[in-house]
């Protein structure tokens, strides 16, 4: 009987923590609003569809990226870089792991939706690529520098 009480209490505590985790800053996902309540552990079953809808809406407006004016600081600068030089970012691999988790093919994909907003690696890669490009570095050197700096983290 005592084991059943302890087990039941433990399960209840875990479920409560999973439900409350996002309110303690455990997730940066924005899954509320029109799509419904937050799923357990901060993941929404329709987040991928919402991201696809955002990309499709931007494409319909002739935009490759989200509007940089939605953001501030280095993130805004990274979105500006993606908007002004999409060809450069499309030629670069992102080393944050979003190729596996989000299906991204290149660094530009991080800025088509909101992924670049919350990923420090994506932001730093875009800023480094832009800085080196402005200094006249060829694409191969930019790729190598990004790989050296970020590939070990992935």
What does this structure look like?
The chain is mostly helical and 154 residues long. It has helices spanning 2-20, 47-60, 73-84, 86-90, 98-101, 115-118, 120-134, 139-150.
Short description:
This protein has helices at residues 2-20, 47-60, 73-84, 86-90, 98-101, 115-118, 120-134, 139-150.
Count of individual helical segments: 8
- The percent range for strand residues is under 5%
What portion of residues is helical? 55-70%
- What sequence of helices (H) and strands (E) makes up the elements? HHHHHHHH
> Unreliable segments (pLDDT under 50, ≥5 consecutive)?
23-52
Distance between the termini: 47 Å
Quick one: how many beta strands? 0
Radius of gyration: 19 Å
Structural class of the helices, strands and pairings? mainly alpha
Which shape, going by the Cα principal axes?
A: elongated
- How would a textbook summarize the main sheet? none
Report the average pLDDT across residues: 75
What are the defining features of this structure?
154 residues, mainly alpha
Give the topology:
Elements lengths: L1 H19 L26 H14 L12 H12 L1 H5 L7 H4 L13 H4 L1 H15 L4 H12 L4
Helix pairs in contact: 3-7, 7-8
């Amino acid at each position: 009987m005592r084991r059943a009480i302890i087990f039941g209490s433990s399960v209840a505590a875990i479920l409560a923590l999973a439900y409350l985790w996002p309110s303690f800053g455990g997730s940066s996902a924005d899954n509320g609003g029109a799509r419904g309540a937050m799923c357990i552990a901060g993941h929404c079953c329709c987040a991928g569809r919402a991201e696809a809808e955002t990309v499709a809406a931007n494409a319909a407006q002739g935009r490759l990226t989200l509007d940089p004016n939605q953001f501030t600081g280095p993130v805004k600068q990274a979105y500006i870089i993606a908007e002004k030089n999409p060809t450069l970012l499309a030629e670069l691999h992102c080393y944050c792991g979003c190729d596996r988790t989000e299906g991204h093919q290149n660094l530009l994909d991080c800025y088509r939706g909101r992924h670049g907003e919350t990923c420090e690696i994506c932001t730093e890669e875009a800023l480094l690529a832009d800085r080196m490009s402005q200094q006249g570095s060829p694409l191969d050197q930019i790729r190598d520098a990004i790989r050296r700096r970020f590939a070990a983290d992935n």
